[in-house]
Known about the structure:
This protein is an alpha/beta fold. The chain has helices spanning 15-26, 42-51, 89-98, 103-118, 137-148, 169-183, 204-210, 228-239; strands at 2-11, 32-35, 56-61, 127-129, 191-194, 215-221, 246-247.
Amino acid sequence: xxxxxxxxxxxxxxxxxxxxxxxxxxxxxxxxxxxxxxxxxxxxxxxxxxxxxxxxxxxxxxxxxxxxxxxxxxxxxxxxxxxxxxxxxxxxxxxxxxxxxxxxxxxxxxxxxxxxxxxxxxxxxxxxxxxxxxxxxxxxxxxxxxxxxxxxxxxxxxxxxxxxxxxxxxxxxxxxxxxxxxxxxxxxxxxxxxxxxxxxxxxxxxxxxxxxxxxxxxxxxxxxxxxxxxxxxxxxxxxxxxxxxxxxxxxxx
Length: 253
C-alpha cells in the first residue's frame, strides 16, 4: 500500500504563497496545507480552507524569526531582547536543547497561534512546525501539554526519514530520538520528505515519486515562484502526472 499526502507549508505567509497554494489545490497537486497565524495573508488562507473541507488544514507553528502572536512579555525566554522578535532558528534550536527556553513559554506561543486560527472558524487537522522546530525536546513537551488540555488533537508531522540527497548532521543526530518521543504521544504518517531549498535538482519530486515507499508518506512543499528555491520546491510537483498515485490527506489517516 502506497498513499501520498502533499502538504503545502506556509499557507497564509503572503498573497503570492496563497495564490500558488490555491493553484495547487485547484489542479489536484496538493491535498493538504498548514496555515501560519498572524501573517499578512492568514485570513485569505483560512477563508479558502473553510470553503474546501475536502482537504486537510493544520497549523504551521512558527517559533522562530517572526513577531510572536502572543504578548512578548508573557514569553520572555522565547524573545531575542535585541530584536523583540522570536529567536532566530539556530539560536532557538540551541536554547531548546540547553533548556534555556521554557516549556511554558513555548506552550503559550503555540497556543496563541493555534487559537488564532481556530478563532477564525477553522477545524484543525494536524500540527507541524516552521523549520520543523516542533520536533525539538522542549517543543514536544509543550505539544504534549496542549494535547492533554484538548487544545490540539493527536496528529502531528513526523520527523524526516526520507531524504533527497545526503541528510544534514542535525537530522542524522536528532530525528531518531525525537521521533521516539513523538511516537509516545502522537499519530503521524509513516514517512516524511521535504527539500525546503536544499536541492537544485529541478526533477526532485518526480524522482521521489518513483521511489515512494509502502505506507502513508507526506511530502512537504513550499508553493511560490518569487524565490527560486520555492519555484524548485513546487514546480516539478505541479507538473507531475499524479493519476497513478493514491492521494490522501490528514483527515483520512
